[in-house]
Structure formats: structure tokens, C-alpha cells
Design brief:
The chain has 167 residues and is of the alpha+beta class. The chain is 29% helix and 29% strand. Helix 1 packs parallel to helix 3. The longest helix is centred in the N-terminal third of the chain and has 14 residues. It is globular, with a radius of gyration of 16 Å. It binds magnesium ion. Magnesium ion (MG) binds next to strand 1 and helix 1.
């Protein structure tokens, strides 16, 4: 890159309301739950947080700029497809992923038993071994909107490295 950086860190966050009649999706993995994420797209809160972390690290923008919720094209959009499209732009800008670490905050369902599937799904989309991706599930200790089961929130941090090393 022009500024000579070899590494860039990125942070992403997203939150979606939980409502009946919607699927509960994390990184494209459907998890059985009484309520799922509302949203203009498929509501995949983890995919959105990861997308923002990657775009932010590369300094390219944010998910709302690339895939505007006002655009009917993105209604019920496959968020993992959006993630792959965003990552393609990150790669085209000369970056590859070193690692990704994520936190999902919700009371129910429990994320832990789906961790391997979530890591595999994100790793496949981002073209790295699953060892470079981690996902942790947390509750909000019953506090606030998350604690009442009204929403699910996700955080992601990533490290990008300039492809091909630095001269
Ligand atoms: Mg979102």
C-alpha cells in the first residue's frame, strides 16, 4: 500500500433485533432458535461484523456503503455472499487475512456447540485454515436488551497482511 503498512487491524460490530418467524444465522450457519435476526438482508449479524472488520482494516469503507440497506437488491441477501464480495475487494487492494477473532453476545441459543461450524464457514469464505478464525459465545448476564433476548450482537477483529510481503 502507498503508506507502506505491512499489517492493518480492523474492528467490526453489528446488532440485530430478534423476532419470531426469522432464521437465526451466524456466518451462514442456521442455528435452531425460537427467534431469528430481523433485517433487510438475511440478518446474519456475525457475517456483517466480520465484513465491517475487513473493510475497515483495508480502509475501503463499511458494509452500509457497499451494500446499502435502502437498495432492494439486498433484500434477504445472503450475507456470506456479501462477505465474500467484500473480501474480494480487500484482496484486490493487496491484503490477505492473518487471523480473525469474533464474539457473539446473546442469551439464547448457545453458540458454543456451533463453534466449529462457524469457524469452518468463515475460514472457507476468507480462504484461510480454520485455525486462523475463532468465535466465542457470551451471554449478557441477563442485562439489558441483549439479556432480555431482544437482540444479538457480534464483534469481530481482524489482522490483514500485505500480500506478497514488503520490499
Ligand atoms: Mg447488520
Amino acid at each position: 500500500m502507498m503508506d507502506g503498512s505491512r499489517f492493518r487491524v480492523g474492528l467490526g460490530q453489528d446488532i440485530h433485533r430478534l423476532t419470531e418467524g426469522r432464521r437465526f444465522l451466524l456466518a451462514g450457519v442456521e442455528i435452531p432458535a425460537a427467534r431469528g435476526e430481523s433485517g433487510h438482508s438475511d440478518g446474519d449479524v456475525l457475517a456483517h461484523a466480520v465484513t465491517d472488520a475487513l473493510l475497515g482494516a483495508a480502509g475501503l469503507g463499511d458494509i452500509g456503503e457497499f451494500f446499502p440497506p435502502s437498495d432492494p437488491h439486498y433484500k434477504d441477501a445472503d450475507s456470506m455472499g456479501l462477505l465474500r464480495a467484500a473480501f474480494a475487494k480487500v484482496k484486490a487492494a493487496g491484503w490477505s487475512l492473518v487471523n480473525l477473532d469474533c464474539v457473539v453476545v446473546c442469551e439464547m441459543p448457545k453458540v458454543l456447540s456451533y463453534r466449529a461450524a462457524l469457524r469452518d464457514s468463515l475460514a472457507a469464505a476468507l480462504e484461510v485454515p480454520p485455525e486462523r478464525v475463532f468465535v466465542k459465545g457470551k451471554t449478557n448476564e441477563g442485562l439489558g436488551h441483549l439479556g432480555r433476548g431482544e437482540a444479538v450482537e457480534a464483534f469481530a477483529v481482524c489482522l490483514l497482511e500485505k500480500s506478497g510481503g514488503v520490499s
